[in-house]
Amino acid sequence: MTEFWFVGQRETGSRESHALSELWGILYRSFEGAKIAKEPVSPVEASPESEEEMKKKVFAASRALAVIAATAVLSTAQDWDRAVSLFNQKQYRPAIREFHAVLKANPDAWLSWYYIGASHFSLQSYDDSIDAFQNYIKSAQNDDKAQTAGNYFIGMSQYQLKQYDKAITALSRYVSLSEKTQQKVDTTARAALGRCYIFSNRFTEAIPVLTVAAAEMKGNATNYYYIGFAQNKLGRTDLAITALNQSLAVDPKDADSLTLLADIYFSQIRQNPAMAKQVISIGERLLQVRDDERAWGLLGQAYLIDKQYAKAAPLLDKFARAHAESGGAWYNLGVALSRSSQWKPAADALEKTTQLAPKNLAALLELGYVYESDKQYDKALAAYQRAYDASGQRDETAKAGIDRVKQAKPQSP
C-alpha cells in the first residue's frame, strides 16, 4: 500500500484551507530499491568492435598454436585439418563432432577442447562451452596462454548465464594472467567483470574495474552508468552525478542514466525544493526517449512541486491509470487538477484516493476544498466532516471548512 507523506496546511479559516502533500515522497519511495535498470549487456555489444573482429582477435593466437602443436601429435592430420576447416567456415556443429572424433582417436589432442569450447560459445551453448574449456585448462595446467584463453571463455560464458559470482572468479583470473603474460586485456571482458561486481552487489570492487573499462571504451556510455549506479548505492551522490553526466556526454539519450540522475535530484527536493527544476530539465529529456510510467511519474511530480500544474496533470493522469491501486498516485493527480481549477476531474481523482484510503486526512481536506470551490456545498460539508472525524475531531482546518461551508450554503426557506 502506498505510504502517504504530508506537510503543513494553509492558514486555518482560509477558503483554500486544505493540506499540502509532501509530493516528492510518494513517487520516490515507490521506486526505492528498484532493480538495476540495465539488463546485463552482452560483452560483444558493449564493445566498439564488431563481433567478427572480436572473434578474429581472440581465436587467432590459439588457432596458430593449435595447428603447430596438434599436427605433431595427431596420427591423422587430415582429420584435424577437416575439423579446423569446418570451424573456420563457422560450421560449428559439424566442427564439434569432428573434434570429438579427433579426441577419440587421440586423447592427447587436448587442443581440440579449445575449438569445441569456442564453437559452443559461438552457438551460445554456454554450459557446454564451460565444460569444454574446463577440460582445456585442466590439460594445459602449465601453459599460461592456454589458461588465459580458457578462463576468458569460461568467465564470459558464466556471465551470459548470469552466474556472476563464478564469472568474477574466472574473469579475474583472465585479467591477472593477461597482465602476467603481458597480453592486452580484452576490453569487453573487463567491462563484463565490472558488471558482474555490480550484479553481485559488490559496488566498491566494481568501480575501479569499470573506471578502467570506461577509459578503454571511450564511446561506451554504459560503463559510466554503472559507475554512477555503484557510487549512488555507496551514498557518494556527487560522484554518482559526475559519472552519470559523463555517460550522458557520450550518449545524451541514454535512458537509464537520465532516469537515475533524475531519481538522485528528486531525492534532494525535500531538503531543497529548487531541485525540482533539475528534475524537470532531466525529465523532459527522459520523456523524449522513454515515454513510460517512470518518466510520467518523475516529470509529473516535478512539475507539481514546481507549481506547473497544467503540465503536471496529464502526466500524473497517465501515471495514476498505470497504478490504479495507488492512493498516492490519484492524490497527486487530484492536487494538480485542483490547483489548475479543474474541479470535476479533480473531484473524481480525489474520490478514488479516499476509496483507497478512507481516512486519509489530506485527501479528504483537498476533496472538501474542491467541492467547496465548485459550490457543491453538501458534498464539501460531507468531505470536511469526514476529515474532521478522521482527525479525532481535532483538525482545525477541517473544522474551519465545516463552519465556512455552513455559512456559504444557501439556507432552506
Mind explaining what this structure looks like?
Helix content is 71%, strand content 2%. The protein is mainly α and 413 residues long.
Give a summary of the structure in a few sentences.
With 413 residues, the protein is mainly α. It has helices spanning 23-31, 51-73, 77-88, 92-105, 112-122, 126-139, 144-160, 164-180, 187-199, 203-216, 221-233, 237-250, 255-267, 276-289, 293-305, 309-322, 327-339, 343-356, 361-373, 377-390, 396-408; strands spanning 6-9, 19-21.
Order of helices and strands: EEHHHHHHHHHHHHHHHHHHHHH
Helix content: over 70%
DSSP, total strands: 2
User: What oligomeric state best describes the polypeptide chains here?
Assistant: single chain
Radius of gyration: 31 Å
Q: Name the poorly predicted regions.
A: 1-37, 39-58, 60-75
- Report the mean per-residue pLDDT as an integer: 85
Terminal residue distance? 47 Å
State the shape: elongated
β-sheet strand percentage: under 5%
Describe the main β-sheet briefly. 2 strands, antiparallel
Q: How are the strands ordered across the major sheet?
A: 1-2
Number of discrete helical segments: 21
